[in-house]
Here is the input.
Amino acid sequence: MRVVESVEAMWSALAEAQPDLVDEHTAYSVWHFCDNESDADELVELVLAGRKRATAGLLWSYEAEGEPLPQVGDLSVVTDWGGRARCVIRTISVEVIPFQSVTPEFAAIEGEGDGSLEYWRTAHRAAFERELADTGGTFGPEAPVVCECFEVVFGNSTQL
Here is the structure.
């Protein structure tokens, strides 16, 4: 199945299963986690397992790409690295805070590694520094981070 067909099929299945949530006019985004195949595929599996319920990105990256910040109620089709639709999530909260202010609670619901704030800081600092290397930006403890919490509204590891 082609990538676009996979996304369209998942969206249609969601519309059929939950007509109160979406209709033909409901907007959605399509994306995958991270900047590499291994992490992208691992993280979507964590979402499907119910362990990962949040994500974080640099505000500067949203601005550089001209992407709007996520808003409460936004729907997204999350894919694996190859673009195959894996689930649909709904944003339930968004907060922009300095990197150094991310809490242990947020790190735990992001669900990566051992769930600790130390792991979160190490992994995200490395990812953010890779992002900034492309733009010549400099990472620091005050770097603004978009902390997004979400819920899975459709999908599982065996669908599509």
Summary: Residues 107 and 117 are 5 Å apart (CA to CA).
